[in-house]
């Protein structure tokens, strides 16, 4: 069974890079003073989302849409009762001028509970748990639920329902007791861990003193839950065929350290590939 399931420690890691090596890599990337000159490296394609080393770099402080989409995709894969709405879609649903441009997310996922993490004013992430059967909109704000914000979110949701021809009568706002973030930048981390807790039916009370560890574990989970076709992609150009390539035969080289990463020889600027050619991927280089 290829479905990732939590182990006794609550981890959802599949087999991938050695956990020690991957942890070292993440820590070294995050400890570098300047990361703007790093060579592009595809860490994983997870739930159809490309996650590269720049995504990882940003995850030390800021959580991007692709990280949220990949992680929610993994989480919802643990249960057939849940479905996640991508960040790009949910942002349009909760924008009054774009609601008519969005697909009907309810009709596509009848009966399922929708998970979505919406960005408010481009500075703050909030988790929404949308239960169609019970007509419940559960709002989980890492900063604590604000009545005005909750009412605005609820109004935008019922407007969307009306635009799509659904009966908005009977829908209600729900809140639940949960941990609150202790800084100004960890809302995305909290939202993802809250979403995980909702699906796995575990506590919404998170440790206050290990946010960086949670960030690291989130990235390891994403990286080690790669889509099967990731093995058919070059880790440098993210493609199966080299860009602008006219060659009939594509030469591939494999990382000699982990045997996970593959590259086009041309993307590594290797004119010839011999038995003695030695290649290490970014993870193996930095975890030595």
Features:
elongated; disordered N terminus; Herpes Virus-1; Adenoviral Proteinase, Chain; Ubiquitin-like protease family profile domain-containing protein; five-stranded mixed β-sheet; protease; Papain-like_cys_pep_sf; 9 strands; alpha/beta; hydrolase
Tell me what the structure shows.
With 288 residues, this protein is of the alpha/beta class. It folds into 2 domains: 19-227, Adenoviral Proteinase, Chain A (Adenoviral Proteinase, Chain), CATH 3.40.395; 233-288, Herpes Virus-1 (2-Layer Sandwich), CATH 3.30.40. The chain has 9 helices and 9 strands. The strands form 3 sheets. A 5-stranded mixed sheet has the order 3-4-5-6-7, sandwiched between helices. α3 runs parallel beside α7 and α3 crosses α8.
The fraction of residues in strands falls at 5-15%
Strand tally is 9
Tell me, rounded to a whole number, the average pLDDT: 89
The largest sheet has its strands arranged as: 3-4-5-6-7
* CATH architectural group of the largest domain: 3-Layer(aba) Sandwich
Within CATH, the superfamily of the largest domain carries the name Adenoviral Proteinase, Chain A
GO molecular function: cysteine-type peptidase activity
Family: Belongs to the peptidase C48 family.
InterPro entries: Papain-like_cys_pep_sf, Peptidase_C48_C, Znf_FYVE_PHD, Znf_RING/FYVE/PHD
GO biological process, one term: proteolysis
Write the layout of secondary structure elements.
Blueprint: H1 19-31, E1 42-46, E2 49-52, H2 53-58, H3 65-76, E3 82-84, H4 87-93, H5 105-108, E4 113-120, E5 124-131, E6 136-140, H6 147-163, E7 172-174, H7 187-200, H8 211-223, E8 252-254, E9 262-264, H9 282-286
Parallel strand pairs: 3-4, 6-7
Antiparallel strand pairs: 1-2, 4-5, 5-6, 8-9
Helix pairs in contact: 3-7, 3-8
